[in-house]
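Second opinion, please. Pick holes in both lines of this record:
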Amino acid sequence: MKNLLPNDWQFNTELLKDTDTSNAWLIPPIVDLCARLREPGHQSHGTLASEGRAARENGILHIVLPPDTNPVLESGSLLKGLREKAFQDGGVYLHILGALTQGLDGKQPANLSGLKHGGAIGVTNTAKGFDSDLVMLRTLEYASTFDLKVFFYPDEPSLSTGGVAHDGYIASFHGLAGIPWLAETIALSKQLLMVEETGLTAHFSQITCRTSVELIRWAKSKGLPITCDVVMHQLHLTDDDIEGYNAHTYVLPPLRSNTDQQALIKGLQDGTIDAICSHHEPLSSSAKQAPFAESMPGISNFDTFVSLGCKLVADGILTAEQLVDKICLNPAKIAGIQDYQAVGGAVLVDPAHAWTVNKDTMLSAGKNTPFLGQKLTGKVVQTFFDV
C-alpha cells in the first residue's frame, strides 16, 4: 500500500487489517472546490441525499457549493440549515459560497456581513456579469472590508451569451454558436487587475484556456494573493469530443482545443494551477435528450473523478503525491477548512481497478456523462469517514 496521508495525519491503520491493500493508495478525504448538488430548488436533477451519497462513496467528503441555487444563497440565515441538511441527508460537509450581489444580478452588493456571520467561506457572482466595471470594483472593495475571499468564474457575458461550444473549427463545422477564449481571458484580466487594486484574496475557478494559464502565471509572479483550479474533465476531453453533436459533452465553460488542454496540463504540472475540481452538475435523463444546443449544459462527475485522476498518474502527468495535493490538500487550504485534519478520515483507492461507466455503476442521480459505456481504471474501494 502507498500511504499518501500527511505525516501528522490522524488515522488508525488497524482499520485496514482485513482489507487487501497490496496495490492501493491511502489518501485524505477529497475536497471538491465546485459542485452543484441541485438542492435547494432543482431536486428533479438530484438531492443532497443522492449527491451526498455519491460524493462519499467516491471519496469526496468536503464540497464547496456555489450560491446559484433557488433561492440564491444571499442571506447568512440560509447557510446553517443547508449545511446541517447536507450533513444529515448526505453525510458531507458543505462549505458554502455566498452571493456577491443581490440575486446574482450584478447590480447591488448582497449582505456580505450577514453572509460572513452565517459562515460563508467566500463570495462569488458565479459566471454572471456586473452592470458595470464600477459596480464590480465597488462590490469587491466592499468584500475586502470583511476579509472575504472572492471566487471568480471568469466569463464576459457579452462575448459568451448564446454560445454552446468553443469558438473554433469544430463548432463552425457543426453549426454551433461559439464561445471565444476571449470571453474568459478578458474577464480574467479585468478581475486580476481589480484584485491587485483592492488587495483582496481571490480564487479563480474552472479556467479553460492557454491565455488564462499565462495570465495566472503572470499574476502569481507579481505576488498577487490568488489561486486557481481546473475542472477534471477539461484535462481529458476537448472540443473534438463534441463530434456527432454529443450532448453529454455540452458543458459551460466549454471544452476547449487541444492546445488549450496542453497548456492546462503544463500549468497543473508547474504549480500555476493549484487544484482540480469536479464541477459536478447532475441532470435528469430528459435534460440531455434535446439537440446539442437545446439541451442543458453539465456533466455528472462524482463517479468518474477518481478514475480520471488515476489516469493522470498512469499517463505520467502527475505523481500520486501531486494528485493528492491537487484534489485534497490544496483545495482544503483554498476553502479555508480549519478542521480538515481534525475531521480526519481516509480514502482507499485501487488505481488498477477497472470498471465500466453505466447507469448501474454510477451512484449520482445524474447519469449525464460522456464517459457512459467506457471502461475506466481506478476506483475508490473503501472510505473511512467517522461521520
Q: What stands out?
A: The chain is about 35% helix and 15% strand. Residues 182-198 form the longest helix (17 residues).
